[in-house]
Design a protein that fits this description.
- Keywords: Hydrolase, Metal-binding, Metalloprotease, Protease, Secreted, Signal, Zinc, Zymogen.
- This is Extracellular metalloproteinase.
- It comes from Crepidotus variabilis.
- Its EC number is 3.4.24.-.
- With 815 residues, the protein is of the alpha+beta class.
- It is 28% helix and 17% strand.
- Strands 3, 4, 5, 6, 7 and 8 form a 6-stranded antiparallel beta sheet that branches.
Length: 815
């Protein structure tokens, strides 16, 4: 039965490339419906000089001496940046400087302060010049650094185009190599091929991706200008739009589009170091659904010799489109090359209103842990009562931050609205049959004053032309399920450290810090596609957007909203993007190994949640638990789901290792992600073997005074120690905690190696390193031992890898 044997998403989407992209030409899906597949861009320069250091020996080698433990962590970070890492380069009057970002924060659970630093040169930010410095008790315990370390150019002078290698060209070479290798490979029956694993039959799809990423449209020479941002922006829009008609119109009517743009300067309430007076927004941009944010910046590109980087002056744009939300850097000089693209898929004071005591809601849903309709029956579940994660429950929201209240009347500060629909502080859930961006007035179920979301679900098999209507009959059930699952994930991740300061998704933050007004916009049965799901993650303070689709893989159609693993995977994109590189930086998981891990974390956490709840229902001993699962098998109507292999520690069932990334078909982020998820799965099993297994990942309910009881979930703290950090007892809960803590420690654009090292350091911070060898042995079993290597890694994940099967020598000696 699929429910108990389960095993393989290029922007924050669930399916592999076959389902993951929209192109400019219509396609016909398996049931005869015409539509456009989603187009996405994603590439950028490599950073061969970037480092992540988590060893105290590496940090002390730089000459940094720990300061007094009571020293402000931000001051510790400042001293580290100026006195050790950058020295004379940051002397007064230097063209190089930095700013400590406002999204830096101290993790309440671990006591680690995560400090995020952005490099400035000639007063402009270096878009990919990042440092993350992790400070605890006056010590820098780890740091990542991708600061530009060459000579500063003259202010506002661009590079000669001939002096820098073509960043996109290198990435495209890797893609074309994949296409060529598939052309020479034996053709595989597409019906037997796991989704997300391209074969020769998918070459047209890959060529379409190459066309989108590698052949941007060129502007006529006489319409391009080095001192005007508009040609650069229009070139990007002509390249990014999925519509050939729009692209053609931009080029044929360039002057009209250029002259129609309206610029509004961004005025900061106060002027902080690094804020640029010429930052602005642009209206009337073709194919953008909101004003484009723009500013001048630098970006690092490989130098001609290939042994370092040089700075290139760029226009940095944030562009929200119908199906994409891009952060892109386009060279300021003609011909305005697109250097980097990441597809993401103002803070005001509000008085803290007193939280009313509202009656909880109930939902007739597939309960937490039942992955899909084949795994169990629906039941009536109560609104989760977690006063820590959701103090006002799931349906209450202050009118001052409520988009609906603002749309119908003047919001009154300090007043709460207790909704009787699927609209609350953590998520706005609704149908989106038209596939548009509007959501406030879309349909959502009304449950009445008792808030009983009890709706029927009994779809019938119909003729294909009637299948859509049949699915839409049950939209009340679908939206209620999506609202329930999303809130459960919100509350779970909150308890593991994804709180307001860390950048979680809440419309109101209860005065606990972080940027608010960013609840998840969750669209059920989204009409913009089939057989997929995706999540757009802008920086903290802007709403995340999740789109769940119908799957026409069976009759009746299968609804992705009802497969919990898919919903959890998508929401985990928001978790990993906000935690990696800081809440205000959504550009750290865009492509290559970094982008792949963004996909892998979603599969891993969805599978860990499912495994625990399966065990609870099976009533068997934890040693007999299931240890292999497929991803998306119910929605896709495939036994092995949408990945190449089920997730399993058995190498016969899943042989994936680090070296697997070199195989044809593993160039994309989804294939890379399933390798990362498999590695984490094996590491988790090592911890479970040592510490045992919990039948729930959900921590104990907070007491009335807000403290967390240890119960059978956390260790009882020693009497001489503070109650924090809380250390999970069991292997599976500990694995989830370490993976999430590792996201906070790792640098922007991490590799597999750096993410591995961050998880190992997370254990050092949490437990004093008592699982050091267990973690290393787990990573080594799938090729990420200390002797793992990669040569000539490219931005999109290419290179030649060698599996490392050895743990550190101290662990070998301990066996």
């Amino acid at each position: 039965m699929r429910c108990f044997f389960t095993a393989p998403l290029v922007v924050a989407s669930l399916a592999g490339y076959v389902y993951g992209h929209r192109h400019a030409t219509p396609s016909i899906d398996g049931e005869g419906h015409t539509g456009l597949r989603r187009k996405t861009l994603g590439f950028g320069p490599a950073h061969p000089h970037a480092v992540f250091r988590s060893s105290p020996y590496q940090i002390q080698t730089n000459g940094f001496v720990p300061v007094d433990s009571v020293t402000d962590p931000l001051e510790v970070a400042r001293l580290f940046v100026e006195d050790v890492m950058l020295g004379k380069e940051f002397a007064e009057g230097s063209s190089k400087s930095y700013k400590i970002r406002k999204d830096s924060y101290t993790d309440k659970a671990t006591g680690v302060t995560h400090v995020y630093v952005r490099q400035l040169v000639n007063g402009l930010e270096v878009a990919d010049g990042d440092m993350n410095i992790n400070v605890k008790d006056g010590m820098v315990i780890s740091y990542g650094n991708s600061f530009y370390n060459g000579a500063a150019p003259q202010p506002y002078v661009n590079l000669n185009a001939d002096t820098a290698r073509d960043v996109r060209g290198e990435a495209c070479d890797a893609l074309f190599t994949s296409i060529r290798s598939l052309r020479h490979a034996s053709v595989v029956d597409s019906e037997q091929l796991p989704m997300g694993s391209p074969s020769a039959s998918h070459i047209p799809e890959l060529i379409a991706l190459a066309d989108a990423n590698c052949q941007p449209r060129e502007l006529p020479d006489n319409l391009s200008s080095d001192d005007d941002f508009r040609p650069a922006l229009l070139k990007f829009m002509a390249t990014a739009t999925p519509s050939t008609a729009v692209a053609t119109d931009i080029l044929e009517n360039f002057e009209n589009h250029r002259d129609a743009m309206e610029v509004t300067p961004v005025n900061h309430l106060t002027h902080d170091e690094g804020e640029q007076p010429f930052e602005f927004t642009v209206d009337n941009v073709p194919d953008a659904v909101n004003p484009v944010k723009a500013k001048l910046a630098y970006i690092q590109v490989p130098n001609a010799a290939g042994d370092g980087t040089e700075l290139q002056l760029v226009w940095k744009f944030e562009v929200e489109m119908q199906d994409n939300w891009y952060e892109t850097s386009v060279s300021a000089s003609a011909p305005h090359n697109i250097i980097s693209v990441v597809d993401w898929a103002s803070d005001s004071y509000v008085p803290i209103p007193k939280v009313p005591d509202f009656e909880g809601a109930s939902y007739n849903v597939f309960p937490w842990g039942i992955n899909d309709p084949e795994c169990g029956d629906r039941s009536v579940e109560k609104e989760n009562d977690d006063s820590l994660a959701s103090p006002a429950g799931w349906h209450a929201i202050p009118t001052s931050v409520d988009p609906y209240s603002k749309s119908v009347r003047s919001a009154s500060k300090g007043i709460w609205r207790n909704t009787t629909t699927t609209w609350g502080n953590n998520v706005f859930a609704q149908e989106n049959w038209e596939g548009q961006n509007a959501f406030i007035n879309n349909y959502r179920p009304e449950a009445g004053s008792e808030k009983k979301f009890h709706f029927k679900y009994n779809p019938k098999e119909t003729e294909k032309p009637d299948a859509m209507d049949e699915a839409q009959k049950y939209i009340n059930t679908t939206i209620s399920q999506l609202f329930y699952t999303t809130n459960m994930v919100h509350d779970l991740y909150y308890r593991y450290g994804f709180d307001e300061l860390a950048g979680n998704f809440q419309q109101y933050n209860f005065g606990r810090g972080g940027a608010e007004s960013d609840a998840v916009i969750a669209n059920a049965q989204d009409g913009s596609g089939f057989n997929n799901a995706n999540f757009m993650t802008p920086p903290d303070g802007q709403n995340g957007r999740m789109r769940m689709y119908l799957w026409n893989t069976a009759l009746p159609y299968r609804d992705g909203d009802l497969e919990a693993g898919i919903v959890i995977h998508e929401l985990t994109h928001g978790l990993s993007t906000r935690l990696t590189g800081g809440p205000a930086n959504s550009g750290c998981l865009g492509w290559g190994e970094s982008g792949g891990m963004g996909e892998g974390w979603g599969d891993f956490l969805a599978t860990m949640i499912r495994n625990a709840e399966d065990q609870k229902r099976s009533k068997s001993k934890w040693q007999d638990r299931k240890t292999h699962y497929a991803m998306g098998s119910w929605a896709a109507n495939r036994e092995n789901g949408i990945r190449n292999y089920p997730y399993s520690r058995d190498t016969v069932i899943n042989p994936s290792s680090y070296k697997t990334l070199d195989k044809p078909g593993y160039w994309g982020v989804h294939a890379i992600g399933e390798v990362w998820a498999e590695i984490l799965w094996v590491v988790a099993q090592e911890l479970i073997d040592k510490h045992g297994f919990s039948e729930t990942l959900y921590p104990p309910t907070p007491l009335a005074n807000g403290t967390i009881p240890a119960g059978d979930f956390y260790r009882e703290p020693a009497s001489s120690l503070a109650a924090k950090p809380l250390i999970p007892i069991h292997g599976n809960t500990l694995a989830v905690q370490l993976v999430i803590n590792g996201m906070k420690l790792q640098p922007c654009r991490p590799s597999f190696f750096e993410a591995r090292d961050a998880i190992i350091q997370a254990d050092e911070v949490l437990t004093g390193g008592e699982n050091y060898c267990d973690l290393w042995k787990g990573f080594a079993k799938r090729g990420l031992g200390v002797d793992a290597k990669v040569i000539n890694r490219t931005p999109w994940g290419g290179g030649i890898r060698s599996d490392g099967l050895k743990p550190p020598r101290i662990c070998e000696d301990s066996e």
